[in-house]
Design brief:
By secondary structure, this protein is an alpha/beta fold. Helices cover about 35% and strands about 20% of the residues. The chain has a six-stranded mixed β-sheet with strand order 2-1-3-6-5-4, with helices on both faces.
């Protein structure tokens, strides 16, 4: 990835899909999430497509975070199938977990389907970069991200050093 030293937020969306990477399926989740993230008015945004490879994911996330990207959203690999490894790949690189974000995503998923109990969504930080791991299903990924959009701008400001009070006036 290109380093981001400019003004504003740089947003990356990483789709993890063996079939998508091999050209056997069109990725719908990544572009849908990127459209939703436009609400944050990112100065730079880019889609990435990787196979289900934990090392490739860890490397890309570390490279993006060290290159100044402020928000990384992945889609795919949070379920229970044999190649779903996203949480295990990301946990070693995260410095802090965001359990409230994870609980909100879990709750949102359950409000739509009991199968949401199978999802292992993840949220955390690496330096001044926020990392979100969402389901691979377009609908589930969009529902999870929508549940976080109201708080994301404030959370990103805080992560980047905003010292103002958080309380409502």
């Amino acid at each position: 990835p290109e380093a981001w030293n400019g003004e504003g937020l740089a947003v990356a969306c990483i789709t993890l899909s063996d079939k998508g990477y091999a050209g056997e399926r069109v990725d719908e989740s990544g572009p849908a999430l990127m459209d939703m993230l436009s609400d944050l008015n990112p100065a730079k945004k880019e889609l990435f497509l990787l196979p289900d490879d934990p090392r490739a994911l860890r490397k890309l996330v570390k490279d993006l975070a060290s290159s100044g990207w402020g928000l990384i959203v992945s889609t795919g690999g949070t379920g229970l199938s044999p190649r779903d490894f996203t949480p295990e790949a990301l946990l070693p690189v995260l410095e802090r977990r965001l359990p409230g974000f994870e609980q909100v995503m879990f709750s949102e998923g359950l409000s739509h389907t009991p199968r949401a109990v199978l999802s292992r969504c993840l949220a955390g930080t690496l330096g001044r970069t926020m990392v979100l791991a969402l389901p691979g299903s377009r609908r589930a990924a969009a529902e999870n991200l929508a549940s976080l959009l109201p708080v994301l701008p404030h959370a990103l400001e805080k992560l980047n050093g905003d010292m103002s009070d958080c309380g409502r006036k």
